[in-house]
Protein 1
Amino acid sequence: MSFRIRLGTLSAFAQVRLAVLVLLLGLPLAALAQGIYPAPAAAPEIELRVTGTVEVIVPYGTGYVIGGNFTQINGSDRRNIALVDASGALADGGFVAGWATAGADATVRALAVSGDELFAGGDFTSFGGQSRSFVAKVSLLDGSVDADFQPAPNGVVRALALDAGRGQVFLGGTFTAVDGSARDRAAKVDADDGILVAGWIPGY
């Protein structure tokens, strides 16, 4: 799939990540200069009109979840988080109608999908109308925010990665504590309840 997104709508960090993706896929760098990310000839093309900036795009099913600092996707209100189908049309339906006003109250910088569950990290302190400090877990089936998953880092989460084999999630960012325990910019938590993995303490 390709995305037709003007470079002006992407943060510098997102542009770098997309450039790396283009290189990994063996696609022509000339496309970046035009703000177009081409796919193989047989694949359909997606065009997204974004009011704001896109920080992260991850696949989900046949579509994509988009995070960033934006107020609209394709002319419809969305607050920093959106779900689109393979054509680029909004696919979040009625259950994410609340994302128009109560998505994330600040920039979404990282996303990870596990099945029908979405992990989101960023600058926010509220997600889906629920108080969440910098990281949240959301159902992509009904839009509900998981009540048990509250690691509560004390700073921005800028990166997420799944350890699916252990049912755990890596967090990276500017925080110095998670779940009340000292962690310097990196931590690992349980994917179900958000409890800190005590034995994983990376050194610097």
Protein 2
Amino acid sequence: MNTNCVSKILAVIAVAAAAAVATPTASAVPGYILTLTEVSSTVLTYTYTNPTDPTAFTITPGIGGGTSPDTWTVSFDPMSGIALSSAVYDFAEAAGEPSNEVNRYFYATGIGSDFAFFVNSDLPLGTGSTVTSANIGTDGGIPIFLQFVDSAFASETASNGVPEGGSSLGLLALALAALVGLTGLRRLLPSSVDS
């Protein structure tokens, strides 16, 4: 085999090995991801990528015992190793939601419980900027990145109690046609038919 050909093959192997070493693996992820998902104005769920403690959080509707929709308290075990940084983050609404609203994360030590943060959804957009992901603290020294997914738009618009006008008119026309049809059918039946 030609020495030049062997050199080229070794160079390709070296580049492939370097690329494999530089490619991050699941164990080399720079932090855990906490994804909050608003399912409706009263339901918030989460996923957490810490494989040793994927259920580290508990979500309770309302803030401070309140029952307002679009508000939640998210608590965690004081012994979990989770340490949050005081911050307020506004997450942009999902596509289809009003662009002048945000979903807010709020945590401050010494306010309420040091082992809970608060979430408000569908708040008016302030003058600050919005984020799609934010570093909110650490879990055992590993950063926690928060993401917010607002999937509640369909349920919020469907539950407002106001039907879409075209469907209502169509149903009314169908009901009237059925009524006229039944009235005409009654006229066609012999009058001597009694039960």
